[in-house]
Amino acid sequence: MLSWPTRRTSSQGDDRFTDTVPPKPEASLRPPVVGVAFGAGAARGWAHIGILEALVEAGVTPSVITGTSIGAVVGGCYAAGRLDELKEFALGLTRRRVFSLMDLHLGGAGLISGARLRAMLEEGLGGQTIESLPIKFAAVTTEFGSGHEIWLTRGHLVTAMRASYAIPGIFEPLNIGGRWLFDGALVNPVPVSVARALGAEMVISVSLNSDHNGRGTIIQDHQVEAPPAPPVEVPERRRGLFSPVTNAAAAVHRLTRRPDGAPGIAQVMVDAINITQDRIARSRLAGDPPDIAINPKLSKIGLFEFQRADDSMAIGREAVERLLPEIRDVLASLSMPA
Fold this sequence. Notes:
There is one protein chain. Helix content is 35%, strand content 17%. By secondary structure, it is an alpha/beta fold. The model is unreliable at 1-11 and 238-246 (pLDDT under 50).
């Protein structure tokens, strides 16, 4: 319906027109849907907890969480509202307790059965399903044989976590829906693309293995020395990985470090995957960059030093605090009319 201006007479006697249409209010803005893509990185993954806490305290609350390997564990616990319990568990870890969770299982497809870790997750999360979570969540895995990238977005939450962190050779792959699945770090170490596909309008990535200056460069000239002669004497009792031992902690320790200082078999496997995932992550993030990249400086945290959760969380917090001005700028620039 048209609204005609009304005529009025001023004190000077001239006629003026006034518009009865009220001024149009400014459109209110809504913040973008925030998604966080948590990367793989073994024990360094405790930094994800500090990062999440710092983001939430700053008013940046994720509505989409995607994760690979340890990123799927921390992200899944946050999505289920169990981050505080996971933090308490992580801070209570000691070297001895870490060893106690590594239940050796040399007869299967992995060195560690993972039964104790599974029982702990089941106790904390029970039969919770991904679709029942209050926010969107996906765990990234790799299919054995085909190499397909599989996103687990429905079904049993703990099983999805276990499939995502099933490092080849360390944990056994899981058979889910007729597919054998293991660590998603081999195909999508920092799942930015998954977060965008789930509806995130602003994606924050967290890479745990980027703090390596010069990683992946070429050394063009390196001299080869003859190896030292092996000792002549043979010890009475062999202390190899498969020899009988009375100290389980010592057996697990040899998985990560041998007496001569050489890396153990588990350390070799995990580091080889980390080098591979670092190369893959560089390529994928270059093609699909996040809006904010958080790269905590974690090179001093060993891949099996799960007992250093306090240090890792503090480093994660510091990484967020350094980027808070940039995060707020991006939030403002991506805000949309409500």
